[in-house]
Amino acid sequence: MVPLPTMQWLDGCLRLLDQRQLPSEEIFIDCGDIDSLADAIKTLAVRGAPAIGIAAAFGAVIAALTSDQGEEFDDAFHSKIDILEGTRPTAVNLFHCLEIQRDIFRRNPGRENAVRALLESAKGMVRSDLEASRQMGCFGADLLKSGSTVLTHCNAGGLATAGLGTALAVIYEAWDRNLLVKVYADETRPLLQGARLTAWELSRAGIPVDVLPDSAAASLLRKGEVDAVIVGSDRIAANGDAANKIGTYPLALAASAHGVPFYVVAPLSTFDISTPCGSEIEIEQRGRDELAHLGGRKLLPAAAGVWNPAFDVTPATLITGIVCEKGVLFSPDTESVHSVLGRS
Ligand code: MRU
Predict the structure, then answer these.
(1) Residues with pLDDT less than 70, the chain
(2) What is the reported pTM?
(3) Ligand 1 centroid – CA 156 distance (Å)
């Protein structure tokens, strides 16, 4: 599998495949300043936990390049990092990658040094993410038997990472090993990452994919047509509870009710040991517009309010296993999460 061109560093700016336009158009946007990058992250031109973190790490290079040298240089850099940190609250990779970049900035005084070290670090994150995807792909595919059909939610593919994916890395590897018959992709209301992005990625790779309304998933699971549910995550708490796209939790409940294994695939950079359990994870609330309009058509009467959480939390007790680059944590709990992070 060749990595998708989710993001590329081009002399002083970050080129992003604009995911808001997929699958109708494959166009790229160039972000050469912090405001345009922050806007791209907020409006989901780039999205998915690992991709947000890595894009922000390149953003730190942009922050150093675009801050005036002199007495105010450090403050200007850190306030630009604050802007990036304020874009999306749930995916821990954003904070994790920016903390690494802040530390590198402190240890490399002067713009030239800082830019060199920050860029090296961001490129290193791309390499580690690709390597983690390959490893997760192998560990995850080992869990599937020949002739499997799997169900996924949202997009945890190359578009959501440096180019290969988490849940979809497992699917790509299983396809390469001839284990897979078909993938079902929840459309993933309201922004349709499953229909627009996962179906685009899988079709591009020649993998058969059927899209279903999110509300049809429980019926599909009851029919016994799915061998495993495989999803990504935006943040895994110390006890193994996992935040992911809204609609993941009901999927886990339905999988448990129908005896279908439920796997979360995420690199160690998505684990957050400082958050003891899922109820402490901040869930991003998004705007009214995402529910009030569809394809340019007004859907809601003006008087109707909305509740639009972008993510939900699946309790560890509903997770059969978390696949990371070190292996699989079956029935994850505080002990196994601490133990795998201790090994990193
Ligand atoms: O709002 P999004 O599109 O950024 O949400 C993305 C997800 O929920 C993904 O499943 C998650 O980030 C894992 S990506 C490997």
Answers:
(1) 343-344
(2) 0.97
(3) 6
